[in-house]
Amino acid sequence: MENDKTPKKSGKAFLSQFKGYIYLIPALAFLGVFMIYPLVDVLIYSFEEGYNFTSQTRLGVGLYNYSYVLHDTYFTQALKNTFIIVIITVPLSTGIALLISLGLNSIKPLKNAFQTIYFLPYVTNTLAVGLVFMILFKKTAYTDGMINLLINAFGGESVDFIDGPYWAKMMVMCIYTIWVVMPFKILILTSALASVNPVYYKAARVDGTSPFRIFYKITLPMISPMIFYLVITGFIGAFKAYSDEVALFGTDLNAAGMNTLVGYVYDMLYGNSGGYPSYASAAALILFAIVFTITIINLMLSEKTSITQ
Amino acid sequence: MDNNDRLDTSEIRNSKIRGVIKNVFLYVFLGLWALIVLFPFYFMIITSLKGFGAYNSERIPKLFVDNPTFENYVSAFTQVPLAGYFINTLIFTVVTTALMMFVIVLAAYAFARLNFKGKNVVFALFLSLMMIPNELVIITNFVTITNLGLRNTFTGLILPSVTSVFYIYLLKENFEQIPEELYKAAKVDGTSDLKYLLRVMIPISRPTIVTIIILKVIECWNSYVWPRLITDDQNYFLVSNGIQEIRENGFGRENIPAMMAAVVVISVPLIVLFLIFRNKIMEGVSRGGTKG
Fold first, then answer.
1. How would residue A56 be classed by pLDDT, with cut points 50, 70 and 90?
2. Do the Cβ atoms of B234 and B88 come closer than 8 Å?
3. Which fold does the domain B79-250 belong to in CATH?
4. Are B37 and A265 an interchain contact pair (Cβ–Cβ within 8 Å)?
5. Domain spanning A73-308: which superfamily?
6. In B, which residues are within 8 Å of A269 by CB distance?
7. With an 8 Å Cβ cutoff, is A297 touching chain B?
8. ipTM for the whole complex
9. Is the CB of A283 inside 8 Å of chain B's CB atoms?
10. With 0-12 CB in 10 A as exposed, 13-18 as middle and 19+ as buried, what is B177?
11. pLDDT tens-digit series, residues A186-233
């Protein structure tokens, strides 16, 4: 620091000040244009009433966009669908992933093969595999489809899962979502389970503790931070569900009654029902508020439980 | 004494039997999930090998192929511009990943090694940007790109996704683990910052850089939303949009074997990549994966 007093050194220091920003220029430029400016802009859009995209004019400023969106039946439908997807898929996928990871951790032969297979959905194109799911579940004039044949084999009636009743569509939706999100959860939980110190298990076995008690008293507390991490990311991911829906039901999700919040935002922006960036912005901000609130609640819950342990 | 011994052996046998039953149950359970994961892949492959007529005459779809045919693969490349979608995705993936690596390596280096005024403030701002969901900024980006007249161009497709705050953070953490003494020694030797970055930092951090590249390639290959907003000209469709287009307008709605052939072709590159770099990818996803 004292060296800075000599003019030569301080000149160099000035240059190195400058240098840091030169290295940051590309990142700052891209983030500025495609992230910080849009963030301000989306707020402005959401309060501009009657904004016209082609003529770039507006009627006024206020909360009309929010009120419009909240009263739009497509929005409430999307809200309902999204909440159902979140509430069903997050606990189910985390639970099944935990069971599978526990299973994986207690076997040796074939463990690697199973892990490789379980990871496959992560590296597949959602749109492409969604098409396969659609065909497996769809009932057409030619065939009832694989899944219906399976249901028939167990004595059930065929259902059209793609164009049929709401609950059936929702079921396929949830099954596909779970199929897609499982690899990440299994991966995280398997490594969390493997990192539990085996000394605890040995001590418990010496004491003759039952396996269930070992799981409940040792394993679960040890991996609970990872479970919470998965629940939080799972909530965020499920609230942003969109591509999986398109993969199963096509691009016109409103017609199928299977739109999601993110889908609503995009439909407002683009496509046949598009051209309303103001409504899209208001909806996006509502979505962000919901996700933010739920993440905060999750974080508070996770803190509370880790203290009681 | 004698009694006790006998009791012990029968107990051991009992616990062995219990162990076997437990294992059988475990493998059945794990095998069942493996089946659920693999079945869609199996189904797309066998269906893609069935002839159009053969498929439609099966009221109960067969789980094997009688007369395998490759005609669906031929029509996937001739009746719809699948090859075009493929090349587009390849260009998009390569250029986006390369540009992003350039941007994030420089930024991570600045945060990890260079000293400048306001560094901590700028870094805190960067970190806070990680909370911003894409859905919030995509609206304005769509308007920006449209106003710039960049719809249906590669520039419009690529530009918004060449920075990632999260990867800058990941790389910065990695750069910081390289001993600072190395940097000081290099400075004494008169090595320039850029040279040091290229000759020392990047080679040492190669594992992390490879991880980031792989994650970005997967993300690019599967990206759907932004390309859908920004392209409506088939010549610029990526594979995700291509498959949606094929489903809605290509082949005629009922030619499912041909659709399945297209699905197989689209799925193969990433699966091959995964099988080659299995450990690298799984490690990378557990460190920086987000899909879940």
1. low
2. no
3. MetI-like fold (1.10.3720)
4. no
5. MetI-like (1.10.3720.10)
6. 138-139, 142, 229
7. no
8. 0.88
9. no
10. exposed
11. 999 999 998 888 888 888 888 888 888 888 888 888 899 889 989 988
